[in-house]
Design goal:
With 281 residues, the chain is mainly β. Helices cover 8% and strands 46% of the residues.
């Protein structure tokens, strides 16, 4: 058995998670404060995961620090699930997750449910930043459930990924344009990845601007967008129904997909991922 993980968890804020229906007949509206109650203040949270390698070569979770609404749960050897223990992100929130994968270790990060981004009572932009560093010979798999942009939200997503020589990554990102029957809020997503100090992927896109969302050259009739970055370069591009495999200039492959709902998006990403792996040497 591995030594117990060192876990520091802050107390959850009141309110809990907000349920919703994705693709069902209706979406559950956000909870409203009682009349006269002060609006919930913006939250600043910093969570972290750090791995280390023991004398037998096994991966240990040296640090697993939660900060609600980002709560971390160890669910297997080298595996962590993200659990939302409070509503969020809401407008004005500043949330961050820092991941350090030590050389020669392997980490698998998932989530137990989708993330619902909501507008805050006082307005303002919400921010979610994920910074990950993967050491030499290490492996990171990052596959959280989709991010859902509720109507009225103003959100920014930032990913900074640094891969050392011989590091491996499988990073999937999915965004759903609003709950069932509503327009999406606004989201600006930025993804920056480097390999051995050199650029691997710079990707940026916007959701929530009508001229972009409905353009046949961008999203068309799609309600979801997703991408997967994986190390290992496919020898040539591959185009499928709603998905594409794009070899990068560096040692990586990008799979991109669109879908009319979250189920179709995931299916198309899986097809693209399988095609990319099949064609890698």
């Amino acid at each position: 058995m591995s030594p117990p993980d060192r876990l520091a968890t802050a107390s959850p804020r009141p309110g809990g998670t907000i349920p919703y229906t994705l693709g069902g007949p209706a979406a559950t509206p956000p909870r409203r404060s009682k009349p006269g109650a002060a609006p919930r203040r913006s939250m600043r949270a910093r969570a972290a995961i750090v791995t280390e390698r023991d004398a037998d070569g096994r991966t240990l979770l040296a640090t697993m620090r939660s900060d609600p609404p980002i709560t971390l749960r160890r669910t297997g050897p080298g595996q962590v699930h993200l659990v939302s223990t409070a509503a969020g992100p809401l407008g004005g929130d500043d949330l961050a997750l820092d991941i350090e994968v030590a050389p020669g270790t392997a980490l698998d990060v998932r989530s137990v449910a989708s993330t619902l981004v909501l507008p805050g009572a006082a307005g303002g932009e919400s921010l979610m930043t994920v910074t990950a560093r993967v050491g030499a010979g290490a492996s990171l798999r990052f596959t959280p459930e989709p991010t859902v942009l509720a109507v009225g939200c103003l959100h920014r997503m930032v990913v900074r990924l640094a891969l050392a020589e011989d590091a491996r990554v499988f990073w999937r990102e999915e965004i759903v344009f609003g709950r069932y029957g509503e327009r999406p809020g606004s989201c600006h997503s930025r993804f920056d990845a480097t390999f051995a100090g050199g650029p691997l992927l710079r990707q940026e896109f916007v959701v929530g601007e009508p001229a972009i969302d409905g353009s046949p050259a961008v999203y068309g009739d799609a309600r979801c967008v997703g991408s997967t970055l994986m190390t290992g370069r496919a020898p040539e591009p591959v185009i499928g129904d709603g998905w594409a495999v794009l070899p990068l200039a560096g040692p990586g492959t990008l799979v991109s997909a669109l879908g009319r709902d979250a189920v179709e998006l995931r299916q198309r990403l899986l097809r693209g991922e399988a095609a990319a792996v099949k064609r890698q040497p």
